[in-house]
Amino acid sequence: MSIRVPTYQLAALQEPAEKPAAFFFLGPDSAVPHLPIDRPYRSNYYKIGLCREGRARLNVNLESYVVEPGSLMVLSPHVIKQWPAMAADMDALSIFFTKEFISGSGSFNPDNFAFFERDATHVLQLPPAAAKRLSGLLLAIEQKCHEPHAYQEEILRSLLHILLHELAPIYSAQHTPSNIIRTRSQLITAEFKQLVNSHYATERSLAFYADKLCITTKHLAETVKEVTGKRAAEWLAEAVVLEAHVLLQNPALTVAQIAETLHFADQSTFGRFFRRSAGVSPAGYRQRWA
């Protein structure tokens, strides 16, 4: 059995008659995709959006954000997303793209930007000047989306690179000091986090991740603790508990089904893990959402 938070593909945002693409622009004149985003979901794409009018509420990994005019939204495939409320007059400029699109034939990796990390701040309120600058860049990207050109994909990729590098200092100034990866320890930690995002449901042994990174388990544990202040085991547990939280909010799933989905030996093992990590039993947590 596999009952998981759904993962939407970029093609789901497009009209059925359109050729599937790895880049999509959503503006006020675009057809609104009919996806049940009021329920938790994942995506295979990244999103950068700027709210111009209206309000919405966005949940990312159990954190809740208010989106309003001037709000910048930065979302990656590594997070669980949900839009519980969105005003009818919501107006935003948004671009969606896959890692394959932004990388092209090179090694460019969007995950090296701090705002795409799983534990980043995913909604920022921009100063008016920054919002105006980014709005202009997003509108330029929209224009290029609708202009036939022999090198349209290359042009869009270049503009997207510019947008990401424009966002980096804005995010750093509002959130944390610049977090460009420079040391071997930071590289190991970043790669560990990416592996956790991909394998946490089936692999909860540090030895698995250490083997993937070609280092010892002790070195991995010490490195992650040094860089993040948290033990590697905590990162693993948090990823599993987050998905368990989301699944427990679905009354159609039994606790036994959730335990099987997350690859626990049985319901009792899952219950002990969840209580140890969350401080409450799965049933107790579910009652809070009843």
TrEMBL record:
Gene3D superfamilies documented for this protein: Homeodomain-like
Ranges for domain HTH araC/xylS-type: 190-288
Keywords: DNA-binding, Transcription, Transcription regulation
Residue ranges that the Swiss-Prot or TrEMBL entry lists as coiled coil: none
MF annotations from Gene Ontology: DNA-binding transcription factor activity; sequence-specific DNA binding
PANTHER family per UniProt: ARAC-FAMILY TRANSCRIPTIONAL REGULATOR (PTHR43280), TRANSCRIPTIONAL REGULATORY PROTEIN (PTHR43280:SF32)
Name of the protein: HTH araC/xylS-type domain-containing protein
Organism of derivation: Hymenobacter amundsenii
